C-alpha cells in the first residue's frame, strides 16, 4: 500500500509554475504566509517591510481586523447580486462615501473591479456623453508620453509606452500623445517651469492639429505612478491644462488609480490643485487597499444625467458594485478617515523624502527623489553628472528590487518604456507607517 497520502505535504516555498504573471524582474517569487501592518512574512518566516504597499495599493496596511470583520459580516449575509437589478447597503454606502470624500462636483460613483476597468469606464462615459450632447465627431483621447493607464485595450490605447504600442498597436487604436512634463530629464534650453509650460502648450497644439471638434478628452495622472516615477508638475501646469480643455470643450480625465484614495495626503490628488479639478476621475488601488479587487469612476451629475436620460450607460461588468467588495471598501475608507491616514501620509512623506534625499547625497547612483505624500520615487542612474541610464542588460531597477527583497524590503520598480525615460523604484509604504518605521 502506498504511504504517499499519509506523508505530510512539504510547505511550498516559492512559485513553481502552472501560473504566470506580468513582468520579468522577479523569476522566483517567495510564498507569503501572513501579514500585519507594514510587514509580511514568507513561509520560511522571513519578514519583509512593504516599502511599496505591494503595487502601491495596501494603503491601510495588512491584517486590519476591522476590515476582516466587515468582510466576514457581509459574507455571512450575502456576497453577490447583480447591480443592474439589485443593490446592497454596502454598495450604496461606499458610493456615497467616495462621492463625499471626492467633494463638490463629484456626485456619482460607478463601482468596478480595478484600475483598468475604471479607466475604461471614464473613456466610455466621456464618449457617450459627447454623442448624446450632439458632438459625435469627438472620439480622440489625448494622453501623455510616458504614462500608464492600465492593461485592457482601451486603457492601453491611452498609455504612453512605445514598447506596448509596438506590440499591441495592431489590435487597438493608439491615441495621440503629448510629452509629460518631466522634472528630472528636461530637454536642453528649458527649466522645470518653462518645460511644463511647453508641455501644456503642446496639449493645445495637438488639439488644433487633430481638429478641435474631434477631441473627446485629455487623460493624465495628476501625480505620476510607475510610468513617470511619481512625477509632480509645477502648479501652473494644472491650471493651464484645465483652461485649455475648457477652451476646446475637451473633457479632462484624471487617472487617480494609484495617486487617489489618500495616497498623496488628500483624498484625490486633484485636491492639491483646486482650480484645476477634472471632469472625470478613475480611482482604484487604495479604495480597497488590496483587501479585494475594487475600482471606481467618479463623475458629476451634469455628465451622468445626460447619459442616463439618453437611455443609460452602455457599459458594465458582472462585478460592478459587488456587495462584498463594497463592504470592504467602506471599512477601508473608514480606517483612512478615522485613523487620519491622509494627514499621516503628508507628514511621513516629508520625513521619507528627507531621508531619501540624504541617501541621494551620499549615493553615486540615486539621481532624483520626488513625489508628494507617500507616493514617491527614487530614480537610479549610472552617472549622476550626465543622468545616464544603466544599459538595459544590467536590469538595474529590477536588480535593486531583488537585492532589497533579499534584505527583507519590498520595493516596486520600473524601467519605463525601454529605459528611454529613466528607471526608478517606488517609495510608497502603507499610510499607517510611523517615523521610527521609516528609519528601519
Ligand atoms: N492607472 C494607473 C496610474 C496605474 O498605476 C494602474 C496600475 O498600476 C492602472 C491604471 C491599472 O490598474 P489595474 O492594474 O488595477 O487594472
UniProtKB/TrEMBL annotation:
Keyword Transferase: yes
Annotated keywords: Aminotransferase, Pyridoxal phosphate, Transferase
Superkingdom field: Bacteria
Chain intervals for the UniProt region annotation (Disordered): 1-22
UniProt keyword annotation of Iron present: no
SUPFAM superfamilies named in the record: PLP-dependent transferases
Cofactor: pyridoxal 5'-phosphate
Polar residues: compositionally biased ranges: 1-15
UniProt-listed Pfam families: Aminotran_3
GO molecular function, a single term: transaminase activity
PROSITE patterns noted in UniProt: AA_TRANSFER_CLASS_3
Family: Belongs to the class-III pyridoxal-phosphate-dependent aminotransferase family.
Name the UniProt record assigns to this protein: Adenosylmethionine-8-amino-7-oxononanoate aminotransferase
Organism: Mesorhizobium sangaii
